[in-house]
Amino acid sequence: MKLKLLVLSLCSASALAFAAHAESITIATVNNGDMIRMQKLTDDFTAKNPGIELNWVTLEENVLRERVTTDIATKGGQYDVMTIGTYEVPIWAKQSWLLPLDNLGADYDAADIIPAIAGGLSVDGKLYAAPFYGESSFVMYRKDLMEKAGLTMPDAPTWEFIGEAARKMTDRANGINGVCLRGKAGWGENMAFLTAMSNSFGARWFDETWKPQFDQPEWKNTLDTYVKLMNDAGPAGASSNGFNENLALFQQGKCGMWIDAPVAASFVSNPKDSTVADKVGYALSPDNGLGKRGNWLWAWSLAIPAGTQKSEAAQKFVSWATSKAYLDLVASKEGWANVPPGTRTSLYNNPEYQAAAPFAKMTLDSINAADPTKPTVKPVPYVDVQFVAIPEFQGLGTTVGQLFSAALAGQMSVDDALKQAQDAATATMTEGGYIQ
What we know:
Blueprint: H1 2-21, E1 23-30, H2 33-40, H3 43-48, E2 52-59, H4 61-73, E3 81-84, H5 88-94, H6 115-119, E4 122-123, E5 126-127, E6 130-135, E7 138-142, H7 143-148, H8 159-169, H9 190-200, H10 217-233, H11 243-251, E8 257-260, H12 265-268, E9 280-284, E10 298-303, H13 311-321, H14 324-334, H15 345-348, H16 351-356, H17 360-369, H18 393-408, H19 414-431
Parallel strand pairs: 1-2, 1-3
Antiparallel strand pairs: 3-10, 4-5, 6-10, 7-8, 7-9
């Protein structure tokens, strides 16, 4: 009996010692499907790293951005790993808010990251965030509804064609909307779509002297086209719909077309989740014949705030979640079509992926077609495609997004929304010292 008690005591002491030694890291991430899948697969990470425990904070996109921005700016220290995007990385790195990712392991192969994606996550040649998935945007459409409308989707459609097709495919009596587009307010929600769309209409946020341009005809044409199209062919309540809401609508067979991130393609083409999985086609984002398409460039990425006390454990997790081995893990569990896209050159050279993912080539073509250094038809003093890479954009973009969402909802006219956007942008840029 004494021997048994001694063994139990030793086991308890060992367990307590391990618990005391185990390191816990907190990861803030967005509630998109690929990140939710990552959480389900983290037994693989903890098996390989038994001394590290993972705590998850999973949030809606707009809320995530607000929380992580507040935390890092105030040195709150709530998170050890943050899911952030191409907008935040260079700005925060220059503020010394992020740690460089220089300890991802000998087999990580950072050179394999697609150059267009890696460039947006690096400062002075150092990687400050590792891409979990990369994206541009393209058209996903119902081939059966397009055929029923008597039309053929070109590989590179115009906005005029999209408008015609959307209106012909709309069948409200049967719950089918010709097109689903982002309407939810947010600089990374509706304004990601509308800024990219505006580029193809010849619009720009600011001229070369940082003067706001919402009072110009190009923005009027952009917003008029968008609101009229959504009124004629979009779903009810579209001003509340972001990426996840439109994904659900498309999977339920309620959208003829959806222009959004290629990361959605694996979900709309998965018969486990999508009622139209065998009916989906893909095309490049539309243009207006001005030399720019309405596609963006983005990566949801994992970064480590400079204030963490657990940088070694955090880098181990970032390396695991963004590695080639993680893509292999997803493929083994879910199939090659469901691996996170847009990050690694080797994925697009993989015959198994090419065979399983009919959207692969269009995704890569869309990423490579986006040019952050020349995002607009006319010259601009800023870089990036669906946002303006200045610290003030986060607040200003959200304000403008709220105005444009209100115009979509019919709460104000397009003209009023543009006037208020012009006034807000002018005030922001004056206060920031960009204009006098």
